[in-house]
Amino acid sequence: MTIDHLTIHGFRNLQAIELVADPSTNIFYGANGSGKTNLLESIFVLCLARSQRGAKDKDMVSTHSDTYRVSGHATVHDRQREVAVAYQQGGRKKITIDGVTARASELFANFCAVSAGPEDSGIVSGSPSERRGFMDIYLSQLSSRHLSRLTEYQQVLSQKNAALRDGLDPDPFNELLIATGTQIMVERAEFVGQIAVLAAEYYQTVAAGRSFTVRYAPSVSVPEEDYSPQLVEDAFRQRLASVAQREEILQSSQAGPHRDELVLEIDGLPARTCGSQGERRSAVLALKLAVYEMMKHRREMDPVLLLDEVFAELDENRTNGLIDAFGSLGQVFLTTAGQPPARLEQHARAFRITEGTVLKAT
Amino acid sequence: MFKSAASVERLATQLARLPGIGRKSAARLAMHILKLPDEQAFQLADTIREVKEKVGFCSVCFNISESDPCDVCTDQRRSPATIIVVEEAADAAALDKVEEFSGRFHILGGRLSPLDGIGPDDLHIKELLNRITDEVTEVIIATNPNVEGEATAVYLSKLIRPLAIKVTRIARGLPVGSDLEYADSVTLSRALEGRQDF
Q1: Which domains does chain B have, with CATH numbers?
Q2: pLDDT (tens digit, 9 = 90+) per residue, B51-72?
Q3: Does the CB of A103 have a partner CB in chain B at under 8 Å?
Q4: Nearest beta carbon to residue B114 from set A144, A145, A163
Q5: Cβ A27 vs Cβ A340: under 8 Å
Q6: CB pairs under 8 A between A and B
Q7: Helix (H, G, I), strand (E, B) or coil at B42
Q8: pTM score
Q9: Which class for A77: exposed (0-12), middle (13-18), buried (19 or more C-beta within 10 A)?
């Protein structure tokens, strides 16, 4: 999909903006605080009705206004679509697709966007829960069942933990934990299996000669990493039986998808503790580009790619590697604080942002 | 609200304690009761007293009943071979409308929910096991299809299965007379899982 025309009103520091986007690469450049990231955020809101950095609607409304409205013309599967997302302070978010009021789930079903930016650094350097969040956010976008399974798993887990705390028999909840937990593990394993290959390839593009390994490490070890549902279920059941005594003493659940980990290694060493800033940034970027590729395949459309300050902390070689990768991507919107790299400017549309206005389009 | 008549005020306060009744509705009901003919108002009062005096719990199935054992437990037309286990008396009342079912009930009085401090000892589970004699051939577990209800079902099935008795769980799926297009995806996928040979 591509966003062809974008109109923004009252969104953060962007009062009134109208721009015609290039179907391939678009660059927003300008000083710090000029509104580049806000522009990317508005595009993300237009595609998915939420902020990529987890901001609340009320915080995205400009201080000079009580309403934000982002609207645009998009081309999806060769069809022209009109989409708008608006929010009035204290009211509800209103989404319209082709002039008809729609729900957020319809937006997810019709449009697709992947973003990468400084807010994603936690995927590599943060706690395991951030890596589980990374897997689950994209899995939920691909399958609505995944989200309902996660919710159910969380409910069962709270009941089981309460049973352990109160000295009650946690066993009835284990069966349900196994049923939902197995499905979550199978889905995560499939997801990681798919993005691991792609992420390794993209890391090579950005940082030639270095290897990047992405591996699913569930808290329940499955023999020979064969994640067929029956084997996972058996392994989970065995594991729960073996930790039962420890769970009773510690009064908390010790095994299951809520303790899964996503292992990220650069040249065989943990990216979190051994990677440099630049290497970690490249790793996040490779992961996000892999997700992009997988979404493109599963959704049968090019997602809109939003890249926030991705050139920062990358050396010249890595920057060039990344620019080369753009050729194979769909529509890209990216921000950079300085003058955009000359190699990129040649085949991209550049927009200079100053204090919330788009000054120049070249 | 009714400063001139303290007893009306007391009635309104009492009514406001009922579920789903707010202060305004309680005041309206109190005024309505005041305007009722004496006979009708006393009948209402007597019925409330009667319910509290006469209705208790059946010592066999724990359903609400005016006799002990209850009419269902003593009904010879009902087969003692099948026991259907439910969470609350209201669930039994709903199932009792099903003409095809001619077995007996067992009301647990709740469901396993450690978060609310409810464990197996707080439910009528021991009494259920005591009821399982040679004449019982099947126990149908009809707890609600949510996390707590499912956990209760799992717990019961593990207790009963060693007794060499058939334990079944009611099916989950689509309501009769509904439209597929309006069903949520979770219900639909459960319905698919539970599909049967035609």
Answers
A1: 6-54 (1.10.8.420), 69-197 (3.40.1360.10)
A2: 999 999 999 999 999 998 999 9
A3: no
A4: A163
A5: yes
A6: 50
A7: helix
A8: 0.79
A9: exposed
